[in-house]
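Design request, tokens follow.
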């Protein structure tokens, strides 16, 4: 085959492929054109007119109804459940792991997976209508460890956030570098619930993570940051004498807020905070928690290093946090447990708590 024939063939193939992509995009726009759809929320209390074709989660958010979601719509957190009484179509494979038989009977769906293709009837808990969106100013960034940053954000003038210590916000990243779209993830609030005009978060860098790399590499003091919240049911119940608090890594965030809440409200609970880390470089807020221990005898801080290095000169508890828990918590009597950290660590700790007689009603956690 001579060179001009090759060129002609390549040209024809390119033209065919361009033609096909035009046909596909026309077909997509026709197929995805579901027109205006009506979302009936809570038996006609709210009637929303939306343009079909997107996920229920994103269309509700565009109407300022914020459904909890931590994974950004990837069907991995299972938090975005909404009852779709009519118009949701069949349950999808991606939803099945998160929707129990009981929830299926209540028409529960993952709103990030359900595409709005027509009119729908929805039931949404009234308290979710209190969730708001804030565009804050980033006023401080501090390196707490080599991979955890503390962000302090100021709410717009005159605006405040009411949250229960332990709850989280959804934090939005903007397009940056090769990431072309906005993304959002859940982050527990680490600051005091009494401080209503600022929010602090502790964000650990996840290799190749979209939002954490945005925070660690692209975000600067003075930038505007979008958040919505508050969300979540990880907050103090306090029907007990003592709170057993357990955290690893950035899981310290909601525990810090909880500790201050108990102190500021003058609650009588004793608190024991087990903080698990690998080596000395993973520990942070040490001086602050040591000071709280001095000022408030009801609080005991137990940092545990799983792999202390000789140069760490560590004279505290050595070993996994599970070992300290096993040795230092005698029984479940009069106690509630609040845990936050990685799934592996939390599962191991919860097993120990069960063995000691804690029932599930006395164990509260956020796994991430
Ligand atoms: C209720 C709740 C509260 C949370 N609070 C905090 C908090 O206070 N501080 C905090 O730093 N994070 C917190 N998280 C985790 C956070 O929401 C994100 O999942 C995390 O920051 C990763 O986001 P990313 O966009 O950088 O990574 P993604 O782009 O989502 O993920 C990139 C890759 O990393 C993997 N990956 C995701 N998360 C982790 C992880 N934690 N460790 C290892 N690999 C991971 C993914 O499977 C994927 O392959 C919380 C999560 C939940 C559900
Ligand atoms: S947003 Fe996480 S499962 Fe839907």
């Amino acid at each position: 085959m001579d060179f001009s024939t090759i060129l002609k063939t390549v040209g024809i193939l390119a033209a065919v492929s361009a033609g096909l992509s035009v046909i596909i995009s026309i077909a997509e726009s026709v197929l995805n054109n579901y027109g205006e759809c009506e979302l009936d929320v809570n038996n006609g209390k709210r009637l929303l007119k939306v343009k079909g074709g997107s996920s229920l989660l994103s269309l509700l958010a565009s109407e300022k109804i914020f459904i909890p979601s931590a994974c950004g719509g990837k069907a991995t957190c299972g938090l975005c459940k909404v009852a779709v009484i009519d118009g949701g179509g069949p349950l999808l494979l991606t939803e099945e792991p998160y929707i129990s038989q009981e929830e299926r009977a209540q028409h529960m769906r993952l709103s990030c997976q359900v595409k709005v293709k027509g009119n729908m009837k929805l039931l949404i808990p009234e308290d979710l209508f209190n969730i708001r969106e804030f565009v804050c100013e980033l006023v401080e960034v501090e390196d707490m460890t080599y991979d955890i940053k503390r962000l302090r954000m100021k709410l717009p003038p005159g605006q405040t956030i009411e949250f229960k210590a332990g709850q989280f916000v959804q934090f939005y990243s903007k397009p940056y570098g090769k990431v072309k779209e906005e993304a959002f993830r859940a982050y527990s609030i680490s600051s005091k619930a009494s401080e209503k005009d600022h929010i602090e978060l502790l964000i650990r860098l996840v290799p190749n993570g979209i939002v954490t790399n945005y925070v660690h590499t692209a975000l600067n003091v003075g930038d505007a940051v979008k958040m919505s919240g508050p969300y979540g049911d990880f907050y103090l119940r306090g029907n007990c004498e003592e709170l057993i608090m357990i955290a690893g890594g950035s899981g310290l965030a909601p525990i810090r807020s909880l500790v201050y809440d108990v102190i500021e409200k003058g609650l009588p609970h004793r608190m024991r905070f087990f903080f698990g880390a690998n080596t000395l470089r993973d520990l942070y807020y040490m001086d602050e928690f040591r000071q709280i221990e001095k000022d408030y005898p009801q609080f005991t801080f137990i940092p545990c290093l799983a792999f202390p290095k000789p140069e760490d000169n560590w004279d505290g508890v050595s070993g996994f946090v599970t070992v300290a828990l096993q040795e230092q918590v005698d029984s479940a009597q009069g106690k509630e447990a609040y845990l936050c950290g990685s799934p592996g660590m939390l599962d191991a700790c919860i097993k120990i708590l069960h063995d000691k007689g804690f029932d599930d009603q006395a164990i509260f956690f956020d796994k991430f």
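Comment from the thread starter after seeing the answer: thanks! Residues 242-367 form a domain with the Rossmann fold fold (CATH 3.40.50.80).
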